[in-house]
Amino acid sequence: LVGIVMGSDSDWPVMEAAAQALDEFEIPYEVDVVSAHRMPREMVAYGENAHGRGLKAIIAGAGGAAHLPGMLASVTPLPVIGVPVPLRYLDGMDSLLSIVQMPAGVPVATVSVAGARNAGLLAVRMLAAFDPELTERMTDFQAELNGQATEKGKKLRAKVAGSSSFGFGK
Amino acid sequence: LVGIVMGSDSDWPVMEAAAQALDEFEIPYEVDVVSAHRMPREMVAYGENAHGRGLKAIIAGAGGAAHLPGMLASVTPLPVIGVPVPLRYLDGMDSLLSIVQMPAGVPVATVSVAGARNAGLLAVRMLAAFDPELTERMTDFQAELNGQATEKGKKLRAKVAGSSSFGFGK
Amino acid sequence: LVGIVMGSDSDWPVMEAAAQALDEFEIPYEVDVVSAHRMPREMVAYGENAHGRGLKAIIAGAGGAAHLPGMLASVTPLPVIGVPVPLRYLDGMDSLLSIVQMPAGVPVATVSVAGARNAGLLAVRMLAAFDPELTERMTDFQAELNGQATEKGKKLRAKVAGSSSFGFGK
Amino acid sequence: LVGIVMGSDSDWPVMEAAAQALDEFEIPYEVDVVSAHRMPREMVAYGENAHGRGLKAIIAGAGGAAHLPGMLASVTPLPVIGVPVPLRYLDGMDSLLSIVQMPAGVPVATVSVAGARNAGLLAVRMLAAFDPELTERMTDFQAELNGQATEKGKKLRAKVAGSSSFGFGK
Amino acid sequence: LVGIVMGSDSDWPVMEAAAQALDEFEIPYEVDVVSAHRMPREMVAYGENAHGRGLKAIIAGAGGAAHLPGMLASVTPLPVIGVPVPLRYLDGMDSLLSIVQMPAGVPVATVSVAGARNAGLLAVRMLAAFDPELTERMTDFQAELNGQATEKGKKLRAKVAGSSSFGFGK
Amino acid sequence: LVGIVMGSDSDWPVMEAAAQALDEFEIPYEVDVVSAHRMPREMVAYGENAHGRGLKAIIAGAGGAAHLPGMLASVTPLPVIGVPVPLRYLDGMDSLLSIVQMPAGVPVATVSVAGARNAGLLAVRMLAAFDPELTERMTDFQAELNGQATEKGKKLRAKVAGSSSFGFGK
Amino acid sequence: LVGIVMGSDSDWPVMEAAAQALDEFEIPYEVDVVSAHRMPREMVAYGENAHGRGLKAIIAGAGGAAHLPGMLASVTPLPVIGVPVPLRYLDGMDSLLSIVQMPAGVPVATVSVAGARNAGLLAVRMLAAFDPELTERMTDFQAELNGQATEKGKKLRAKVAGSSSFGFGK
Amino acid sequence: LVGIVMGSDSDWPVMEAAAQALDEFEIPYEVDVVSAHRMPREMVAYGENAHGRGLKAIIAGAGGAAHLPGMLASVTPLPVIGVPVPLRYLDGMDSLLSIVQMPAGVPVATVSVAGARNAGLLAVRMLAAFDPELTERMTDFQAELNGQATEKGKKLRAKVAGSSSFGFGK
Questions:
Q1: What local confidence, expressed as pLDDT, does residue F164 receive?
Q2: Which residues between 97 and 116 in chain G have a beta carbon less than 8 angstroms from any beta carbon of chain H?
């Protein structure tokens, strides 16, 4: 239901987290390398066919002059989620601006630098808006996040209480 | 179907373009001021009730330490679209980073600085993924964008041909 | 008297310095994980109850789209001190802007990127303004800083005098 | 109770908002020009005497290589609040970094670029932590902010309802 | 011999200077709107046909997430010159990074923000490298720049000598 | 046919990729250290003689206050390609701005931070515009890039299909 | 005794303040346009002759890829003071980095964006270090700055005392 | 003749290069820790006495909210050279802006991030302007830089000629 594409397989270590998020929600997806600059015609074809092939959203990761998400958005009516992949220099600021600053008419839903996990979760939310069961799973997921954070707080309080000679709670 | 909220009514001149985009696609929406910092409890309530009230997506605009989109995303399973509203200083870079750099677990679909029109169009795409008629309208819209750009090219070529003594096309 | 909270226990290595500063001044404090995005309701509750529970200031650390300090400030009348925790990318610039650029009405006292020690010392100064003994300790602390820096100068002068064949002091 | 100082009277249009905030809470304050670079000795003297003269906090505004807040913090045990005043170029980013990036040991409570109103409100919160009546006024103030924002929402909804042919609430 | 294209006719006020530079060297050119995002297929076709139609270089201007220069470079073997067009926010920094940070394999010759005149002159230099007469004209042009600057110096010296009571040359 | 120069031999690890790209296309080149700041007169002489010695383009790499590309461009009618070499601090942003922001009249064709390979390929494109055989090689090169990217996609799909329990393609 | 040069007469409105500062100290100076990019050979000659002609320091202003100060520093043993002239975009950040980030071996004494007055005053200080009378004048000048700032404080206090109903000094 | 001071002995690894440069020119200097924030009164005293003690210039290094160079400049008529010391985050951009963006009236001669060697060489140039023998040594030094760079070029050409199968010089 979701296409995960990237400009190079070197983006996979970042983009893998999007796939993992979809896995957690048992949402089928496909993964591919579709480089805007090295495979421009295939990239256009990928975007043009995505809707017809049954995809509901595309997650596209790219770095530097990151043109993949925006170009896909220009040839598909589907929502496209862009993941700014950080390169060796500039900490992903170039990737972020190249993806998020799209002109009026062609939106890209941009997530944080290297934020592929959130790209996956955003796709889940898009699907969940039309799938009550998935909405419930997302709500459960949020509760679980809450539980994990609460647990972390408990551990931190214990650790600090044990090591420090002061503390308000005492 | 879509909630458009912002931190202050001073954001309306920017955010209005989101409403206009939804109007063009005849998608019902509501508009409200829900300040993360001045109405924190109402903001949480808005987010918590959004899905139950039938919203399919929330568009949230905010400037500076722009917390509204991210906070709403933390209390709703719906997709939240964030619009970085530029303030008087820093050209919206603070708004952009405050919205897009969300931690893993809670995504915000961020658009460009002041890119409220694209926020509206992104919401349309999310809905269109589950609505064939809307998909067709989005495809028509993209064709129209194409037509307008083509027309602009025609006018520009004519204008340049008229004013310049050289030109490759001659 | 002071609450030290953070978005995740992964912030503790940075935030620990705030606790240590309070320890040095024997000021009681509590430590907890209160994630704005994963525990929004508990976060609001924490802020709402902070004053009633006797806290005089809250120190909140967060990274990226760092919403915790600002959101706490919106639900408590207490002074909130924000610590921008740097993430892997962008060197904490996103954290800094997300914390410091608060809208008029809801201030956050922001310290430097990863400046948790100064957050602790700022809390001490706030308390000291109403506690003559604590003021004296802060003044002593500043004298000690002076002494340490003076000592460093002495050592540096000795080291340079020993290793260099020139030198103005000779 | 609060000293408001700035590097030049040209900073007054920005800094005035701090005074106004203190006025709203009926907190006595003084205003002065104390330039770190043009009056270094007077600046040191101001800082040294501030506590003895009964001040509880200092608000210092400065632009560019903004040294005033940090230098005052180094000669007083009082909490110092720094306001980055934006100059003609760089949008206050230089002022912000010069104020907020203080070394460990000497904190400055930094607010947003040109955020003098929040500097005033932060001083109020510091005082309120030790003054129940002032806490109540701060709580009332926050309720009033809430009321104003709610009112703005009402007006915006009315305005949009009147001008738009669609709308979810209808 | 040179194609000048841009994402929208709103870029023409910036891009016109490229045409003017080519006019000065009597180099034939064509001008068109070829939007990467609104005319993706026509854009690809434009790039694919450019070499066969006899173009020797393409000058492409675009703003924000500026994908046009890079996408053209991916479908033509011709040198592509990119002009970062500044938008209302971010001063063209987004346009610059989106154009210059191309991945290895597909270069774009980037000029300064709004530097369309230099884009034109760069195209002239590329042609001149294979055209001795054009080289001579470029050398003359550089001599003329020199003459103009020298003349400006003369005027400035005269103006300062007249208005100032001091001056080293006296 | 192409001169590759740099401010110091410490730039060679970055600049080597330009030479390698020219090697791949069997284009003769020369390599030298021509420091704008340490060899200003030789640098001017290098630029002045470049065209007469038969060079068709100059590739110049420099870091920090990177003056070499721009200064060479001021003394030659040849196209100059600038490579921003990143230094230890600032990630090459200083190098990039120092090279790309040339004043009107004297263009430098700037590539990405550390993008020496693209500098080489850009020189190839400039030559290819006047050399049909080289054009063909560039077209082949682009086809090869396409093939490599396609191959990477195949491998990635296989890898993901093997390791993941879900997948749209299944 | 001091040379004030700039890349174009359009820099004069900024650079004039350097001349004015020297006028105030009755230090002879000369003013000229010496463009690094449009007059490279004259620029080198200017730098080479500066010391022999009796100059003690050179003040050079330039914008964008601002090469003038650094190039002059490479051909003269004199201290060179660089003034980053802000252009229409990027607020002088490009000018600043192009001037200040000089490689080891060739220093440029950089002042603030558009800080030509300080460039003049820095030259005065360099001369004053070897001229007791000038030192005295600089000391007087600093006392005068102090006096002006003190006066501004007096006026501000009066103004605030008159307009405000509160005030600590009362 | 030159004072080298820094905010902490942790700045010594950066600042040592200034001392080394002075050593190479056999210029006497002194080294000390004079922290603006931890030793404000001693810092003022250091600046006030510097001229009387025979110093001709002060080199001051500091990081983050780097106030030392500017504060010294405010209490001495001597030229002050500021070295932005990079801290763990922000790559020295905060240090650079805090030092270079001084207000009109009080200049600091700023060098590059971590550019202590150039700070030393700048001091040499200031002294050399009034010392013919030192001028000659600076001229020799520049010739030596030239020789070293020329030698590097020779080695690079040899290395490339040996390893590469192509090369223009062959």
A1: 55
A2: 100-102, 104-113, 115
Alpha-carbon distance B3 to B123, whole Å? 10
Minimum-distance CB partner of B146 among E12, E19, E39: E39
Gap between the Cα atoms of E43 and E56, Å rounded: 17
F27-38 pLDDT, tens digit per residue, is 999 999 999 999
E neighbour chains, 3+ CB pairs within 8 Å: A, B, F, G
Q: Which helix (H) or strand (E) holds D113?
A: none
What is the per-residue pLDDT across D89-123, written as a single tens digit (0 to 9) for each?
A: 999 999 999 999 999 999 999 999 999 999 999 99
Chains in touch with D (≥3 Cβ pairs < 8 A): B, C, G, H
Q: What are E49's two structure tokens?
A: 């046909």
Phi-psi region of E31 (alpha: psi -120 to 50; beta: other; left: phi over 0): beta
How far apart (Å, rounded) are the C-alpha atoms in residues A5 and A20? Answer: 14
Query: Does G13 reach chain E within 8 Å, measured CB to CB?
Result: no
pLDDT(E22) > 70: yes
C25 touches chain A (CB under 8 A): no
Residue G164 has pLDDT above 90, yes or no: no
Touching C: A residues 73-92, CB under 8 Å? 86, 91-92
Helix residue ranges, H only, D12-167: 12-24, 40-50, 68-75, 93-100, 116-128, 132-163
DSSP C77: S
What number is the average pLDDT over the span F143-170?
A: 81
Tokens of G164: 């405000």
CA–CA separation, C41 and C49 (whole Å) = 12
Q: Measure D19 CA to nearest chain H CA, in Å.
A: 24
Contacts 24+ apart (CB under 8 A), C52-57: C54/C1, C55/A168, C55/C1, C55/C2, C55/C3, C56/C1, C56/C2, C56/C123, C56/C126, C56/C127, C56/D129, C56/D130, C57/C1, C57/C2, C57/C3, C57/C81, C57/C123, C57/C126, C57/C127, C57/D129
pLDDT digits (tens, 9 = 90+) for E39-71: 999 999 999 999 999 999 999 999 999 999 999
pLDDT of res. G31: 97
Tokens of C135: 């003021």
Angle (CA) H4 H86 G78, round 5°: 50
| Identity of the residue numbered E124 | V
* ipTM of the modeled complex: 0.95
Tokens, residue E119: 């884009």
Query: Minimal CA–CA distance to F60: which of F98, F113, F4?
Result: F4
- Whether chain C has a CB inside 8 Å of the CB on D34: the answer is no
Residue G78 amino acid letter: L
On the CB side of D81, how many CA atoms lie within 13 Å of its CA? 35
Q: Is H83 helix (H, G, I), strand (E, B) or coil?
A: strand
Degrees to nearest 5, angle at CA C132 with C129 and C138: 70
CA distance H16 to B70: 47
Beta bridge partners of E32: E5
Asked if F4 has any chain E CB less than 8 Å from its own CB, the reply is: no
Q: Among all residues of chain C, which has the CA nearest to that of H35?
A: C149
pTM: 0.96
Give dist(CA B66, CA C94) in Å, integer: 11
**D150/D21 Cα distance (integer angstroms):** 21
For residue A58, which amino acid is it?
I
Q: Quick one: pLDDT at residue C162?
A: 74
Task: Give the Cα separation of H23 and D19 in Å (integer).
Answer: 53
| Region of residue B114 (left: phi > 0; alpha: psi -120 to 50; beta: else) | left
Mean pLDDT computed over B7-35: 97
Long-range contacts of H146-149 (CB under 8 A, 24+ apart): H146/F38, H146/F39, H146/F42, H148/F38, H149/F8, H149/F33, H149/F35, H149/F38, H149/F39
